[in-house]
Amino acid sequence: MNELIIVEQLPIIKEQIKQASELVSIKVENALSLVCNEETVKEIKNIRAELNKELKAFEETKKEVEKEVLAPWNDFKARYKESITDKYKLADSTLGARIAEVETALKDEKSDKIKAYFDEYLQSKNIDFITYGQAGINVTLSASEKSLKEQAKTFIDKVADDLNLIDTQEFKTEILVEYKHDLNVSRAITTVSNRHKAI
Known about the structure:
Elements (H helix, E strand, L loop, with lengths): L16 H17 L7 H84 L20 H23 L4 H11 L2 H14 L1
Helix pairs in contact: 2-3, 4-5
């Protein structure tokens, strides 16, 4: 892989910054040595403007050099993206979509089995007012079918136990109505009990 991309030659930039630096230093020192007062302020403004003009020319040259140096790099980056990166990313997203499709189908199949078990067990307990969604069973690929069925059974058994408790209460019909709101047996009993105390 390392042999696919080889830098044959780094950019060679011919520059004379040292000589230019010496000239700039002399000009700047001369400008800074001038006394600024009412008589010289106009001349100093002109010198300052000239120095700024020279700096701007240097900056323009630097930008041109940067553009030339970066041109091969930018061209390489564009070709690399098109030839390598984009192809890998396409493969990754395509394979990801295919994997997700299969995993979703497997989860749906497992969920259907758990729901069928839930409905069958619910019917065996003669309970007709709760739904599979209320059980809050989170079907994942890693969860075993056995553990998911156990969650369903535990939920239904708890509701059956709550119904048995409600059946022993004095105001069982009212308590059952309250219980069906959120399947909270203690809240249902307390609510109905408090209501009758208030009456």
